[in-house]
Structures are given as C-alpha cells and as structure tokens.
Amino acid sequence: MEHEYRTATLAVVAVVAAASSALFIFATELISIAVLGGLLVATLLRIIILHRRLDRITGMTSSTMIRMPASPAPTGEEREENGETRDKKALLATRTVRLREDESAVLEQIAADADTSLILRSITELLANQFPGSQFRIITDDFFDDEPIDRTWPILDRTDKDLGWVLQAVLSDPGSTPDEETINLAQDLSRLALDKERSQTHLRYQAEHDALTGLLSRRAVLAALDEAIDTQASVGLIYCDIDKFKEINDSLGHQAGDDLLIGISHRLLEASDDAPFDCKVGRLGGDEYLIVASAVERRDMVQFVEGLSFAMRAPFNFGKATISTSLSLGATYTGARTPEDSQLDSAELLRESDLALYQVKRNGRNNFRFFDDELRSILAARKALEEDLARSISSRSGIHAMYQPQFDRDRNLVGFEALGRWFRQGRGLVPPDEFIPVAEEHGLMAAFDKEAFTNISQTLSTWRREGRKVGTVAINVSAERLERKDFVQSTLDILRRASIDPRTIVLEITESTLLHDLRERGRRLETLRAWGVRIAIDDFGTGYSSLSYLRELPVDIVKLDKEFVSDIESSDESQAIVLAILALAKAMKLSVVAEGVEREEQFEVLRDLGCDTFQGFLLGRPLEVEDARDLAERTWMPDLFSQSYEWSETPPVDARALLKNQPVD
After folding, report:
1. In this structure, which long-range contacts are made by residues 582-590, counting pairs with CB atoms below 8 Å and at least 24 apart in sequence?
2. Chain segment 125-158, per-residue pLDDT in tens
3. Domains of the chain by range and CATH?
4. Which of 220, 257, 377, 408 could anchor a disulfide with 208, C-beta 3.0 to 4.6 Å?
5. CA 662 to chain centre
6. Radius of gyration of the chain (CA)
7. Of 477 and 464, the one with more pLDDT
8. Does pTM top 0.70 for this prediction?
9. Are 519 and 555 in contact (CB under 8 A)?
10. Kind and range of the H or E element at 21?
C-alpha cells in the first residue's frame, strides 16, 4: 500500500514538474509567469508532503490506541529477546522516519528547481542513511572506472539524444540484498529529477536552435554576438547569403530548397569546427546565416572566409538532384577600432556586415568583402540620410507624391498611382531606391507612409474644392504601416478630415505583406472595404502565393508584376502565367492592372490577352501634382463620383454595390 501511495504521489509530482518545465522555456520572455509557476509547484508539493506526514502521524496514533489482551510475564530469555526485538524495531522506526524526511527534502529540492547534481547527491545520501557502510552513486551509463561495483539498477534508458542513467552500489555486505522498497524510491526520485532536466534541456534547445537546420536561432546567435562584444576581445561577424536561392526553390521545389539549407548548414558547421577561434553559427531566416567569431585575428578571419567560399564549390547531391550554388559573404571586424568605436553594439556590426554583403551581391555575387573605410563613408552617409528623413517626417516637410497615370485598353485616363517621394533639404529629390531601404531598416516606413497618405488626401481635397475631376487614386501601403494597430482608424480619420470619398481610394499592398498574418490583416482591410476603399495586390505572382489564395484575400484588383510584363511579347511562359491570372481574376470579378508597360508590343499583347488597365513609361511617367491635375482636367472621363461625400458614423451598407457599377482602373 505504501509503495502504491508513493507511486501516486510521485505521479502528481511528475505532473507538477512537467508544468514547471513547460514554464521554463518562457522564463526569458515571461519572468512573472515563471515565478508564479514556481510558487505553484512549491505550494503543491508542500501540500503533498504535509498530507503524507499527517497521514503517517495519524496511522501511528491509531496503532498506539489499540488495546491488546494481557500476556503472561516473560521469562529472562524472553526478556532478552524482546529487548533485541525492541532495539531492532526502534532502529527500523528511526530509519523509516529518516527515510521519509529525506524523501520530503528531495521532493522539495525538485520543486525548487535545484541543480540536478545536488538532487542526485541528496538521493545517494538518502540511501547511505538507510544502508550504513554502503556507498552509492548515480551516473550516466557511459561512465566506466576500476571501482568494484556490487549492484547496478537502471534509472533512465538511453535515447538518440540523451545518455542513460544507472544507480550503482558498493555494499557493506556484498552478499546482502538492499531493501527493494527503498531502492524503488531512489529510482523514482532520480527518474523524476532527471526527466525534468531532460525536458528543460530539450525545451531550451528548441528555443535556441533553428528547427530546420539545427543551427542557432536568430535570437540565440544575436545573443552570442552581444556576449562576444561584452568580452572586450576582438570580434568578427560574417553575414552569409545563398546566391540565387529563390531560383533554386522555384525550379526544384521547397523540399530541394530545405535540403540545400541543411547541406549548407552542415558545411558551415564543419568549417567553424576547424577554425582556430571560437565560432557560433546561426540562421537568421530564409537563406541568410550569421557567424560570430570571438577573440579572432584579422588574418585568421580572412583565411576562414576564403575557406567558406571554397567549401561551397562542391555540388550538393540530394537523391536524383544535384545542386551547385555559392555564397555571398559580408564581414566586419572589431579588432582595429579607435577608442571612439569602443561602444559599438551588435546592431552597428550587423549594419556593417550587411552593407558589405550588399556590395558583394551588387557586384555579381559569389564573393566576399570586408567592411572598410569606403563602406564606412557609405554607412555614415546612410546614417545622415536616416536622420534627415526622420527630421522631415517629424516636421512634416519634404514628403509629397508624384502621380503616374493609368489608362484603359482605349488609352483613356482612368486613374493615378500616387508614389511617395522625399525632397531632402539642401539635396533635392531623393530616389526611392535610396531612402526606402533606409526607412524600412530603421522603422520609419509607417510614419513616411502616413505622411505621404495625408499629403495625397489633401491634394485630392484641394481638387475637389476647386471643382476639378477626381477619379481613382491608388496609394501604396507598407507592411510596417499595415501592422500598426491604429492603421484602419488613422486611414479613415485622414480621409474624413479631407472629405475624401473613400470609393476613390485604392490601397496597394504587396503580395508577401498581405499573406503574412492573413487573418488579422485581412480583417483590417475588410473594415476599410466596408467603407468603399478598394484593395489591390501589388507585384502579384512573385512567388509567395498560389493563385488559390485569391479566394481568401480581401482584394478587388490584381497588379501584374513587372517580371511578367517585361518579356510578355516573347515569352510563352509569361503569357501562360498572365492568362492564368486573368482567367482566375475574371472568374472572381477582379480587375487586373499591368504595370511596367514600356513598349508598344507589350501593350498590344496584354490588351489582346484581356488586361483591363495599363501603367508604365509608354503611356505616362510619374508627374508632379500640377501636371497630374492638368492631365486629369484635359483627359479624365466624366467625374465618376459625386463632388461631395457625406461621412457617417457607420460604413455605408451599399458601398460595395455602388462600386460594382463603377469603371475600374
């Protein structure tokens, strides 16, 4: 009965310990939850222990209250035997009490998440207290020495990830057999402690390692970079990117892409194992890797990077597929810094290595470059650009839009795409491909988008007040702005303040942005659609989604990616893709816009295939606001929407129905 009771108790403890282990993984992020979990575990265990002690005390009290019939007076020999019996019983009772106290102490250690080695030591002390003169140890099953062992009992079996554990004893009387109940107790306690440690180890591994490749996770490798910087020793950082990985993924399939990621990870680990300095290799995500080198000399780092490039030359064989690829590498090194650079942080080193990698990819890939003085000047220029852009956004100056016209198949003007632009103080107009990456990197894109949207709305409001024609205007929305919780409300507030008819607005969102967190982002866009705002997928068909996703996406318009338009007149493949998109769009009553139309042949093929709307340099370049206004005044079709729009507190129930009868761009 006692063994069954103990087994049940340990089962409860095991459940509690498992809950504690599950909470362990959240400790770094949710400390308060872990603390509460620990308190819960300790409280439950103390209740169990008190209950056991109270039960034993009750049992002992009950037994002393039983009245036995009187016995005749014992003889001398009987008195001597009775004395020895009483001594043995007293010793047994003492050991039993000590056993229960030791058991409770071990359980409390497990509940308190004490170090496993301390818990195992307490268990061996529990055994030593029960079997004086005997020696016990709990070790892994791969441990061997010349120590004579009398008995061995199993605790945990070996797995593919963990060693097994055993209990061993050198007995004071080698011919004796230790009490089975006590040994069972020691095995149960040891198993509970070791199972908990295994669970925590596995959870920690999962949190710190990439699930696909087994490399350090993004968070773990960045933490390793912070630790390396804190040592004040020289640090090297290598940013790796697989060349043409998207083409491999698209042509051979995602399984081949995963196999390649794993194969490259193995080669990176092999190279790091052979390095003459400490290396930490992690996967940032996608096809990007990061290598942190600690206490490294520059010459060793150069040789290491050269070795990485060489290691990738051998093709990868995956069953029937053979893949040849290369790496582009950008590196930075902290050894030769000035005292002013001593406060460099991980974000700065990441920017440096990323810029070096960008230059390699820009110059043809399959190479490596170290961050140097030339790149340092570029980085300084980018930092100045970032500061000026942030200043322009906060002061609401310099952010405006240019308007690229859109035409129907008869070349009638049907709308504009408003393109956000930045006029930098003292420098003039900055090309979008210069400032947009900086804005995205430094978290300025949402604020820039909002300021550009406000400027566009004010322009349309001015046109309205002047009695000019106003049709559809498409406006780009970045992933960062769509992610903001106030995105819907701020969009409606801007349109309401400017008295803009929401049916004139199309929000353009890239395919990859829309597919990320589809449910939440889709819900936000559906709210705007209820007011009459239309949604367009920009750069559709760039490889992130299948056509079937169109059924789930809250969209009204599909914009063909320039990649399909650029060779539409000569590529059967591009024509087939465009035909498939057009057929599906027609079935779902979606409009299709072809952007990047630069040649007459492209326009004619797209028109013959059935495209609705066209945009590109062939038909019109982006225009300043005055030129766009004049073009609209001369050539825009009769005003599509009323000159005044009455905003209400709730979305108009007929907004979508009204749009169905309107021409689309």
Report:
1. 582/609, 582/610, 582/611, 584/547, 584/550, 585/550, 585/558, 586/610, 588/550, 588/551, 590/550, 590/555, 590/556, 590/557, 590/558
2. 999 999 999 999 999 988 877 778 999 999 999 9
3. 2-57+90-207 (no CATH), 218-371 (3.30.70.270), 398-637 (3.20.20.450)
4. 220
5. 43
6. 37
7. 477
8. no
9. no
10. helix 2-24
